[in-house]
Amino acid sequence: MDADLEAILAESDSDDGLEGGGLSLEDILKEDGASSPLQEYRAPTTNEESYSARDWAVLQQILREDDDDDDVVPEPPVPESPVHHEKKPQAAPVGPVLWRGERLAPFALRERRLVAQNESIEASPLETKRRNRSKPIDLSRGATTSSEQKPSGALKVEPLKTASRQLAANARRPELGPGAPAALGASPKFVALGTSRGLALVFDHFQEVRRVLGTASSDSVRCVALEDDVACLGHASGTLILWDVVKGSQLRKVDDAFAVSVEKVEFCCRGASDRAVAAIDSSGVVNRIVFRQRVLGGSYLHEVECLLDAKSNVTPWLSVSSTYAAFSSTSASFVVAFAPSVRVAVTWPRPQSEVDNAVVSINDDGILIRAWGCDLDALNSTEEGAAVDFVPCTLPANAVALCVVARGVMILGRDDVLRLIDRKGRQLDAVSFSSDYIASTRDTVYALQGNELQQIEARSAQQRIASLVDAGEWLEALSSQVDAVGDDASESANAIDLLRRYVALAVANAPARRAATRQLDLARSHFKMLASVCVEFCIAVDVLDVLFDDVYHAFQKASRSDVYLDLLEPYILTDKLKRLAPEVLQAFVQRFRENGKLVNVERCMLHLDPTALDFNMLTRLLKTHRLHSATYRIYVEGLGDFVAPLEIALDACHEGVDVRHRGGQALLYARYCLEGLAFPSGTAVEPTTSVLWFLLRKKRPGSDQEYPHLSLLFTVDAQASLDLLSAHLLKRTSYDATVVVNPYDNVQSASVTPPSTDPPSSYFVDGPQAACDASTKKLFLAYLAAHAARGVLVPTQSLSEEVLRYLALEGRTDDVDATEDDLDAWASLPKCLRVLQPANVSTLQKEASAKGRSEASIILLEYEAARLLDSLASEKSLENRQRAAEAVSQTIKASLAHADLDVKKRAFAFITSSISSFLEKARRLDTTVAAAIRDALPALAQVDASQTAQVIANVLPDDVAGACQALAAKPSLQFVVLDELIRTDASVDDEERAVYVELLCDSAPHRVHAYLASHDGYDVEATLELCRRHRIDDATALLLEETGDGNGALDLILRGLGRRFEVLRDAARSKVELNEAEADLRASVSAATRLCSRRSEDHESRRAWFATLDALLEAQRSLKLSRELPSTASQVRAVARDLARSYLTAAADRVPLRDVVSKLFKDHPDATLGDFRDVLTSALAMSRVDAALYDAAATCQQQDQFSRRQKDAFFANRPRHVTHLDGRALRPLTEDDPPALHNHLALMGTAPDAELILTPFDPKDPLGPWQAHSYLPEDEESVQKREEYLRKLRARNIEGAWTKVKNPGYYNKYMDCEDDPAARMRLFAEEDPYKAVVPERERVPLPPRAPPGSLDAVAKFSASLPKGLIDGTLSSESEEEDASPFTAYVKRAAKSGE
């Protein structure tokens, strides 16, 4: 063999050249060192990669056990950008979350790697052949079809060359020949060709012309039917002729059945000596002709029976069986039954198709297959609605011919493609050819194109496979056999026989084995190819017994079992092969053990089905070779036993065998079981606690050690062991105090029925306590603290003391909200103190304080103080009082002495919570405890004065004076505390309020006025003196006003306006304290306006308002803003304008604006208009706003009047249903009543000289029933008339009368637009009955709003307002009549409207 061929084969043979070994257990456990990336292991989330980059080196070593190059995992590429495009192996299922216990992480990673789906299989020649060969195209409805299909060989096209040469010779002599082909017919014996000269050439299967039927004429043959040795020819003249093919004699001529050309004829049911045909002519007439022989060997007679006349528009296609005939019209397909009488059995409507004709086929069972256009379907004509073994499908092209064969249906389409479609709607094969005439018989179709005759055979699977085997195409034959078994399970026997023949042939013709050399071993490559083909074939056709028996033994005889066994591994790892025979399994393990690849064996065991293997042999193999992961899986999935594999592993550990690895794996396995995960795959299973019972066994056979298994696991990893117990305890919410004997104590697990309940809570305390030693004691105490705080474990008193001592000296002291699984947060000192409630922690507190654990010391002090307060609430003795007070004082001092501010503020929470708890049990706070808290107030106020005030209000509400006295040495703190107390409306005495006012004058003088205005209970004289001393003008003015000196108060404020304006100007210049200066000025003006507002409306009131205005103007003029910078002037003017606006707003209700304007010009004749610009602008703008408000109010009043008139008009014109007259009910009208009573009865004015007053029964429902009351004058004649009227009215017993409508036209229009309010408004506006009485007034037009500062626009606006509104020219009569300007304006507007 040349070098090129050897190089090509070398690429496909990857077995030679790699001798990689598996990773040992010691290598895996080395990952636990300082450089291991697994120290911070955690289970990946769904969005994370399953393997980190640092894990790839180890992963590649583990997975490099196969001899194939393709099985080595490549290193991950270095990403070029943050977007990760590298392809990594498929991740194994995630195991349980390991939140602690780092030493379990290597075991978890190893198990995940063992079950990782990283294996790939080199494509076998058989798989390649199956992938490349033609696949059936699914044509079922809704499926997507491909455009091309490779020939599959299901249709064999063979030209009939001899017959074609004969036809070609006839065509060369048209004047002497039989004529051009015009029809084609076929039977198993003969093929008949009808010609245009009325002849029929009958060929046998040797392609020789056996007989020429008929005589030459112009009556061409249009159709041919063959049956046995008889032929029936249909001519263009409508004649049917029955011929004996063997003798060449005419048996019967029928010329009375059809008047036009016969288009289709088929033989149908017959008797012993009778024959029958069904035929269709070109007009659509369908007849059945029965030929009867007179005597045996005699001549024939015929009978014609019409099946369908020409009215049905039958298309020229006919299918006949022994009992049925099927044909179609343009609207439906028909099935005609011949027995017991001729009848139409089924009418099948056409589908939605643009084609008007169909091709049909029917068998003896009445199954009709129809192709109408592109729609292919089937129907059971014998039983309506019965299922048919045929899947409807859509054809790629419209059908023109149809033939039913054994494998399905052959259909010729208009695209000149003959398709073979099986009963599942799949296109098995398709061949392209054109045809003029076509005929079919059984599984063969004959087609004629020109002078070329072809035979198309639909071959069965075995026929095709046999031909492939004869041609030496074994892979194609095996591939076809796989497809055949998939279609028909009975083909399995043929598949086994074919595989045995192939294996025998391949082994017999294998290349000879070469000596050890560096050249390619062709024999090995040959057997590797053979093994891959056999494995693929047996898996595909499910004949694994042959694979493990015949095939394996054939490889053994050829001394190539190593190739066979090596090839099984990738198929097992990809879950294609789920079982092995015992003999093969033992050889498989032995093969990989010899190569040092037992890790590969264990990976394979995790994929095999345990229930399909020899369990006893398998367990021996696993135990012998220490395949622990596989052992767990085999027991759990094979026997459903969770405890047995754990017992095997722990017993070996007790004997000192591989303690570290087996113990860690046992812990991981138990975690899987508790989490409801299968080990090691991680798939979901039913959680079990039987492993907990077993691990918590107190004794085991042959040992006196208590809790031996738990003690062993503590030596492996104590934290992981405790986490295992915590994983179960996290599912509990309470303590289980039941006492149950462990069924696994001192017995073998095989004799125990797994308990269905959980172990009692005491097991989770006693077991770990016995298992832990000095090195693991702290871990146990933290575990116990966490679950004790959760309330699921209850330790003994000694254990409680140990837990608290550990937490106080080394544990956590924070008290955060913890989730259920945050055990570290649960194991904190405050949580455990609340649950364990020790009797005395003073000694522990001193020890914590001595060790510098200040926070723990404070927590213990708080607990001890709260405990002593509870004792004091229960028993009030002197000793309890002193101890409680000392504890409270010591706790507060310790908290305040801490450097952390948050810890200092714990004192407030402690005081509030402890005293609140005390007051729930006692009626009042003990004085000794209150004194302790009061003494600590100064120190508390330095930390947070606001919270100190809350403490006083909540804890010392009855001793506010004492609390304030305690703070007297620090006035600033005293002020903040008092301020908070007053802000929260706490109970503060007058003495404390006086102190507060004094402190307020010192600390916040701008708030004095607000406080004095909203509170009372202070000494006016003393407070006045205090405010004068601190120069607080607004508060001084308020107090002067209270003493009756209103003028003095106002003068005091106004004298300071000029100074405050100067301060504002200076602040605007320097840009410093501008807001404070503005606030001070506004407060002074507000105080002045409030003083003026509280004056009564008299001459003194106006003088006060004018004095305030003068002071404002004088202060502004004295500033001389024209000399200032524009920015300074604009800021001051803005404040002055706003102050003027606020002043005028307050003065508008007291002083007419005309008086304000008049005073401006009278008192300041030498001033310019610019000096009063802000005041005038604000005054005019306010006048415009007031006028707009008045106008809006007048409009609202007008709308209300309009709506009221509308309602009055409706109620005045609508009829009222009167049900009672003078308190007596009226009966309904009947047909016996006179016609007058059926009209709307006019109760108004019916009685002479009487008045009927109508009132509704319910005043809130005027549309409901009404009642009438009559009134008459007092003279005797009127009384008699009234009595006579009422007597006649009551005699008729009238109930339910309607008053007449005064204006029926308006009322009817109003009711017609009941659902359209806008239409009602228009109707009322047009036909308002009150329009003449209350005319509409003209609205006063208002100009657009003037912009601020525009004097011209304001002047124009004021000129358009009603005269006298601003200029004061209203008549004295109007003012006397109504002093309100708004009322006067509305009346004047209404008067002008009239």
From TrEMBL:
Residue ranges of the region described as Disordered: 1-94, 125-160, 1368-1394
UniProt protein name: Vacuolar protein sorting-associated protein 8 central domain-containing protein
One Pfam family named in its UniProt record: TPR_Vps8
SUPFAM superfamilies linked: WD40 repeat-like
One biological process term in Gene Ontology: protein targeting to vacuole
GO cellular component: HOPS complex; late endosome
Vacuolar protein sorting-associated protein 8 central domain location: 563-726
InterPro entries: Vps41/Vps8 (IPR045111), Vps8_central_dom (IPR025941), WD40_repeat_dom_sf (IPR036322)
